[in-house]
Design goal:
Blueprint lengths: L6 E9 L3 H13 L5 E5 L13 E2 L2 H6 L12 E2 L2 E7 L4 E4 L14 E2 L2 H14 L3 E4 L3 E6 L5 E6 L2 E3 L5 E6 L3 E9 L6 H9 L11 E10 L9 E7 L8 E7 L4 E9 L9 H8 L3 H7 L3 E11 L10 E2 L2 E3 L15 H21 L5 H7 L2 H8 L3 H4 L4 H14 L40 H8 L11 E3 L4 H10 L3 H4 L5 E4 L8 E4 L9 H5 L5 E3 L14
Parallel strand pairs: 1-2, 1-13, 2-8, 5-15, 13-20
Antiparallel strand pairs: 3-7, 4-7, 5-6, 9-10, 10-13, 11-12, 14-17, 14-18, 15-16, 16-17, 19-20, 21-24, 22-23
Helix pairs in contact: 1-3, 1-7, 7-8
Length: about 550
């Protein structure tokens, strides 16, 4: 029997309270205070699911809230110094910053907590009359009979793991809207549905992703230099694997330390989490962390395909913005300002749609005329060049970005999707990672504890298998079940009996920190990440 549901009507509903979604909402109310806007956020609060490096470029914020400097914004720590190191196993080479492309320089930027910036943007949005509903996950897209998007449905609350209604059952609500904006972040599960349904990626390169880790450390004052931005390349990764680190010296003697690894890696025995932990043992990093204390951990997938992988961002009744589409600038190592600009463009398009009945397809022209398009276009050839290996990519990037300033007369394509790149386990070299010392390096369980992750135990598993037999019958046999290693939260295990026989695939969904890596890297594309009950997942504070 169909569940009876309440309905709410808005001019615009925005799915996701990240930088792109909140920018859309703010700009809409600036353009027309009479427009009715609501924002749905699956996290327990705004910022709870936000994770980023984050060195922040203010360009889009300058457009959106020009007087932000006179307000109590959480943007305080200016970048004062930069370093770039090439790491070998024991040593490091300090690369002169004047040799770096301008796109990688940060002297006008700020070291911030993106989660706190989003909390501040949410307060700005609410002051303009935007209604924000944290803890309500959009779980289903509503379509008209002619396949127009007409809103979303929030997830049911109080369903047990077998699909039965508990005493606490509350049906989800239909949120109807003239325009729906999907701003879910990287690999949004509704955005993924829209891209497939409307064939938005037709004639585009396969999308590319990375997995990013971040820890916050309180360090000894002698090792802290507020405003310092440092990046590294090289060890512990080999030259064929894309990745590198960031180390940002924030205020209050805190270090934002992180690592990014491209999800196009080949070896199924590679564990991105353990590469990050291993990285911290390098002498150049260890000296910074010695006598320090780790106070936070998180991980999330990053969308890195660039403009050649960017899907069409409009469809009947809806727009895709930010990382739900893929506006991150990979060589700049930034996606917040680009996400915000895509939200501003979306708001301008929607306002004209509601006011003057202009088509949402006008988004395309506005996008192409913006600095956002120009920025992504100039960056387009950097990521695909890393398929050649680290050294050739560095040489090419120097030519592309320094000599030609991103204007080479051709566009490189991405040769494959990330889930297609793993080689069989019997052709791969096993990787032995060092034991965790609980001083610099830590296991996944203790790391997940720091995320504050919580899911109601008795609810449907939100990590859905299309074929329950594939993990053992295919992925274990061919790839030694790589989910055991690519998941940064210990969600997936292969458990065997005392004789080492009868393997069983176990999903510890309560550990999931919503990074979406499994949805991306699973070689059989057998895992589908869908949203759990609203307010579930990590509860990041200052990430």
């Amino acid at each position: 029997m169909e569940v009876e549901r309440e309905s709410m009507d808005y001019d615009v509903v925005v799915v996701g309270a990240g930088p792109s979604g909140l920018s859309t909402a703010i700009k809409l109310k600036q353009l027309n205070p009479e427009i009715n806007v609501c924002v749905l956020e699956k996290g327990s609060e705004v910022g709870a699911h936000i994770l980023s490096g984050n060195v922040f470029e203010t360009r889009a914020l300058d457009e959106l809230i020009p007087d932000w400097r006179s307000k109590d914004s959480p943007i305080k720590t200016k970048v004062t110094k930069e370093k770039f190191l090439f790491l070998s196993k024991e040593g490091s080479l300090n690369w002169p910053t004047w040799l770096l492309p301008s796109v990688q320089k940060n002297h006008k930027n700020y070291i911030i907590s993106l989660a706190n910036l989003c909390r501040w943007l949410a307060s700005e949005a609410e002051s303009l009359g935007v209604e924000i509903f944290p803890g309500f996950a959009a779980s289903k897209i509503l379509y008209s009979d002619d396949d127009h998007v007409i809103g979303v449905q929030t997830g049911d609350m109080g369903i047990d793991k077998d699909g039965n209604k508990k005493d606490s059952f509350e049906p989800g609500i239909n949120i109807n809207a003239k325009v729906t904006v999907f701003a879910e972040g990287c690999r949004g599960h509704l955005g993924k549905e829209l891209i497939k349904k409307y064939n938005l990626s037709k004639d585009k390169s396969p999308q590319q992703y990375g997995i990013g880790f971040k820890e916050i450390w309180e360090v000894d004052e002698s090792q802290h230099e507020e405003g310092l931005v440092m990046h590294t390349a090289g060890w512990p990764l080999d030259n064929a694997t894309y990745g590198g680190s960031f180390c940002y010296h924030a205020e209050n003697k805190q270090i934002f330390l992180g690592y990014v690894i491209g999800l196009d890696y080949k070896n199924p025995y590679l564990s991105p989490y353990d590469e990050f932990q291993k990285f911290k043992t390098h002498p150049a990093i260890k000296k910074i962390l010695t006598n320090g204390k780790r106070i936070a951990y998180g991980a999330r997938a990053l969308i890195e395909g660039g403009i050649q992988s960017l899907p069409k961002m409009y469809m009947p009744g809806a727009l895709l913005v930010g990382c739900d589409a893929g506006t991150l600038n990979m060589p700049k190592i930034k996606g917040s300002h680009t996400a915000m600009k895509s939200g501003i463009i979306a708001a301008e398009t929607i306002n004209e749609h509601i006011k003057d009945n202009k088509e949402l397809s006008n988004f395309e022209e506005k996008f192409r005329q913006s600095w956002l398009f120009n920025e992504l276009y100039r960056a387009r050839n950097v990521k695909p060049s890393f398929s050649w290996g680290l050294i050739p990519a560095i040489i090419f990037t120097g030519l592309d970005q320094v000599i030609f300033r991103g204007k080479l007369p051709f566009t490189l394509k991405h040769p494959h999707a990330d889930h297609e790149t793993l080689i069989p386990a019997n052709k791969a070299k096993k990787i032995q990672y060092p034991k965790y010392d609980n001083i610099l390096t830590f296991d996944k369980t203790s790391s997940v504890y720091l995320t504050g992750t919580n899911h109601e135990d008795n609810q449907p598993v939100h990590l859905q298998l299309n074929d329950k037999n594939l993990p053992i019958n295919y992925c274990l046999e061919k790839y030694d079940e790589p989910s055991q290693r690519y998941c940064p939260a210990g969600v997936y295990e292969v458990q065997k009996d005392s004789q080492g026989l009868n393997p069983q695939f176990v999903i510890n969904a309560q550990n999931c920190i919503h990074c979406k890596t499994c949805d991306i890297k699973e070689p059989s594309q057998n895992i589908n990440w869908v949203t759990p009950e609203g307010a579930g997942g990590p509860n990041y504070a200052n990430m």
